[in-house]
Amino acid sequence: MDLVSIIAPLLGKFWIFILIAFLLLLLRTRWFKGIIGEATVNFGVKLFLDKEVYHLIKNVTFPTEDGTTQIDHVIVSPYGIFLIETKNMKGWIFGSSHQKTWTQKIYRESFKFQNPIHQNYKHVKTLQSFLKLNDSQVHSLVVFVGDSTFKTEMPENVTYPRGGLQFIKNKTEVVFSETEVRDIVNKIEAGRLSPSFKTSRAHVKHVKDIINEKQNANTCPKCGGPMILRETKKGPHAGKQFYGCSRFPNCRGITAIS
């Protein structure tokens, strides 16, 4: 028996162990969890919503003044447009609509993450501006998938998959005609960046750049944009300074100066 015949079977088993280890690491990555979370929402939408009424567009990336913004799911219907931000998380979730960051608690460990309502706010405003729509025509929805439990009271648009479907179905006032629905779908498809690995990679880099900038900048508590020092012109607080969002009047976030 030569050396090759002895080593070859061992190498085969060695590569199997490497492949298994790689897959286990992949399963734990944020990217893979995001894929699973989005797939869960996509499955629910396709299974429980009439596709002739509710038109699903996935992973929509729009160019913005400062880079790009990526929306997990856009659902266009006669009852409005629903923008869904998906979070695949486990553990206890603490937060409120006004807090800048929320907390994920797993046993004794706590982790901070961006308020998903604020995160989706930029998506809503970007789409509203692009389509020239008002607040009553576009709805923000945050859906948590995975083994997570809300430990603080959440607004109705922050929920789990079943609650998200019910939130959509509860909107029954017709705001778009069938022709307008088709036009909106066509405009979104035409205005989005082409779905590709290059587009996703560029968006991820943009997000990382924003996070790095925010660590050293005064940011808006509502939309995450940069703040500008302003001064009250009228009323009992005339002359008092405060930080106001640079995106005013589209965003009216303010921060008091202590």
Task: Please explain how this structure is put together.
It is a single chain. With about 260 residues, the protein is an alpha/beta fold. It folds into two domains: about 180 residues, no CATH class; about 40 residues, no CATH class. Helix content is about 40%, strand content about 30%. The protein contains six helices and twelve strands. The strands form three sheets. A five-stranded mixed β-sheet has the order 1-2-3-7-9, with helices on both faces. The protein has a four-stranded mixed β-sheet with strand order 6-5-4-8. The chain has a three-stranded antiparallel β-sheet with strand order 10-11-12, with no helix packed on it. A hairpin with an 8-residue loop joins strand 11 and strand 12. The longest helix has 25 residues. The radius of gyration is 22 Å and the shape is globular. The protein starts with a helix and ends with a strand. The mean pLDDT is about 80.
Number of domains: 2
* Averaged pLDDT: 81
Overall outline: globular
Low-confidence runs of at least 5 consecutive residues:
none
Q: Tally the helices: what do you get?
A: 6
| Helical content class | 25-40%
Proportion of strand residues? 25-35%
Q: What series of H and E elements makes up the topology? A: HHEEEEEEHEEEHHHEEE
Q: In total, how many beta strands?
A: 12
Summarize the biggest pleated sheet.
Answer: 5 strands, mixed
Whole-angstrom Rg: 22 Å
How are the strands ordered across the major sheet? Answer: 1-2-3-7-9
Decide which structural class fits the backbone.
alpha/beta
> How far apart are the termini?
81 Å
